[in-house]
Write a structure and sequence with these properties.
Biased composition (Low complexity): 69-81, 280-306, 396-411
CATH superfamily of the largest domain: Cysteine proteinases
Distance between the termini: 40 Å
Number of strands: 21
Helix content: 25-40%
Protein name: Peptidoglycan hydrolase
Keywords: Antimicrobial, Bacteriolytic enzyme, Hydrolase
CATH architecture of the largest domain: Alpha-Beta Complex
Number of helices: 18
Radius of gyration: 25 Å
CATH topology of the largest domain: Cathepsin B, Chain A
GO molecular function, one term: amidase activity
Strand content: 15-25%
CATH class of the largest domain: Alpha Beta
Structural class: alpha+beta
Largest sheet: 6 strands, antiparallel, barrel
Pfam family, one: Peptidase_C39_2
Length: 572
């Protein structure tokens, strides 16, 4: 595909913390294209204030996928599941898992303006791949033209760059930037959830983060000739391609794609698992099966059909190991909705054990809640829709049947959290997630603020006062006076100021979320809790910090460490 020559190129003024890689991702182009367009010989040297011309990207369409060698046996999941139809009645082929195959240069939408100055056909690979993944996971066939129109109306682009989470929201989902990990990809696609990955294919860009030239949707995996392979829907051709695994990298496709380590995952929705997609009825769209079956216990009624009118459920958080009245209320609701039997409850009434956890996961899957087996805000909301009243026991008492391990508070999160590679971020992630669940402040923003404000937990304020956010005033443990830099009248000055003092880091994190939530000047930010970048900009605009580069620094940290994946956990 070629770029439209009549389109006037957009420009951008470099800010502190920008890199060509970050700008390439933001504007839907590549670092190589940016460097060539602006005559930059050293891509590691750009300066604040420098004006860059933003080129269109994906200048050429990869050639059609070559046929496999005769001795290659395709894995079972290369067989198409059958076509699906969008709301206009147009039919699209799918890969075996049921993901529609869209081509970014399709005549229906390829000429649409993308963002400010590009086109879907030239630079719409990320958006097209997202449309495929969102269509599969949400059960709604959303073609790229429909998604582009929706993004135009809902602030879905920054320049020519895609707002991933905003795109996912069209299907009722959320998107997160995740650290590159094949285990993460395996778990997602095995659960019927396509992921979007960046690939490199142009000579000279040498892979890595700076080499992302294109985006594709990985939909499944299998084996060919006894070796692991991955299947992806390619927006460039609108066809399925096969990638081989070489270490931690995936390679293959029409022009020798190589993954660059950029990964987007999606939360929410209720996708059918691979192998459960039904063939579409004549004249209609493939029905979503939800990927679940009724409980196998003969005495259990069909799951999800029970009314909960007159049933009271707790307002607190429950998880495996909790005990008490709140757990009994939850078990009663699961019996009424057909996810547990009285016989199952009788083996541990009032104790949140493996049977209660398994039943709750089934309920969550069937009601569009991330199936983590914990009872929290979204699960409560799902029960409310069935008629339940919330406000019973506040929660369960941790079971004493298992000796304490001395593990720090996990903020209501069980199991290991994703690792960022940064000890401070990893240590504080659970408290940030807990704050998000209680106040709505994105965990990614909380973590970035904590790192920036406390100097990665090493500042005098954080070590002497457990204050990780630079909040001034008197705290639960009094106050501590510290010198601080303020940007006043166009220059930095040092002043002494009283700051809140806390008894523990967790107390600081909790107060930070409460401070933002209860302060009216940050009200605009809370309209964008699903968009971490916008949230960061709004609290900066409202005066959280005087540093003119404050929000840019936060966003840089969020992107560098893939912190938005914690937002997805916080929404569960």
């Amino acid at each position: 595909m070629t770029t439209t020559s009549s389109v006037k190129p957009s420009t951008y003024s470099v800010r502190s913390g920008d890199t060509l890689n970050k700008l390439a991702e933001r504007f839907g182009t590549t670092a190589t294209a940016l460097a060539q367009k602006n005559g930059i010989s050293n891509p590691n040297q750009i300066k604040a204030g420098q004006k860059l011309v933003i080129p269109d990207s994906f200048e050429a369409t990869p050639a059609a996928q070559p046929s496999r060698a005769a001795n290659t046996t395709p894995a079972a999941n290369t067989t198409a599941a059958g076509p699906v139809r969008d709301s206009n009645g147009r039919e699209f082929p799918t890969s075996r898992d049921g993901t529609p195959m869209f081509k970014q240069g399709d005549a229906e939408w390829g000429g649409r303006t993308l963002g400010k100055s590009s086109s879907v056909g030239a630079a719409g690979c990320a958006m097209t791949a997202t449309a495929m993944a969102v269509s599969k996971i949400s059960g709604k066939t959303i073609n790229p033209g429909q998604m582009d129109a929706w993004l135009d109306k809902n602030g879905g682009y920054s320049g020519n760059g895609l707002n991933w989470d905003k795109a996912a929201q069209m299907g009722g989902l959320h998107a997160s930037s995740a650290a590159w990990n094949l285990d993460t990809i395996n778990k997602q696609v095995d659960a019927g959830r396509p992921v979007v990955v960046g690939v490199d294919y142009k000579a000279g860009s040498n892979g890595g983060a700076n080499g992302t030239d294109h985006w594709i949707a990985i939909t499944g995996r299998g084996q060919e000739n006894g070796k692991p392979v991955y299947y992806a829907n390619d927006p460039a051709t609108g066809k399925q391609i096969t990638l081989s695994q070489e270490g931690n990298t995936l390679k293959g496709g029409p022009q020798g794609y190589k993954t660059t380590g950029q990964l987007r995952t999606f939360s929410g929705g209720n996708p059918p698992r691979p192998g459960t997609v039904a063939q579409p009825p004549a004249g209609g769209q493939t029905p979503s099966t939800g990927g679940t079956t009724a409980p196998t216990t003969p005495t259990t009624p069909a799951a999800g059909n029970g009314s909960l009118k007159g049933t009271t459920l707790p307002s607190g958080h429950l998880k495996r190991g909790s005990t008490g009245q709140g757990v009994q209320q939850l078990q009663d609701a699961l019996v009424k909705t057909g996810y547990m039997t009285q016989a199952q409850v009788a083996t541990g009434p009032g104790t949140f054990g493996p049977k209660t956890e398994a039943a709750l996961k089934k309920f969550q899957k069937d009601h569009g809640v991330e199936a983590i087996g914990e009872y929290g805000p979204k699960t409560r909301a799902a029960f409310e829709k069935l008629g339940a009243t919330i406000g019973g026991a506040t929660g369960g008492t941790p079971s004493t049947g298992t000796p304490s391990t001395g593990t720090p508070s996990t903020g209501g999160v069980t199991g290991p959290l994703p690792k960022t590679g940064n000890a401070f971020m990893d240590k504080m992630a659970a408290d940030a997630i807990k704050s998000q669940r209680e106040t709505g402040v994105p965990a990614s923003v909380t973590l970035a603020q904590a790192a920036l404000e406390s100097g990665w937990g090493k500042s005098g304020l954080s070590t002497k006062g457990n204050n990780f956010f630079g909040i001034k005033g008197k705290g639960p443990a009094g106050s501590v006076t510290m010198p601080t830099k303020e940007f006043l009248n166009g220059k930095w000055v040092t002043v002494d100021a009283p700051f809140r003092k806390y008894n523990s880091p967790a107390e600081s994190f909790a107060d930070h979320g409460k401070f933002l939530r209860e302060n009216k000047r940050y009200a605009e930010a809370f309209k964008h809790t699903g968009d971490a970048e916008r949230f960061a900009k709004e609290i900066h605009k409202a005066g959280y910090a005087t540093d003119p580069e404050y929000s840019s620094k936060l966003i840089g940290m969020i992107n560098k460490y893939g912190l938005e994946r914690f937002d997805a956990i916080g929404r569960q």
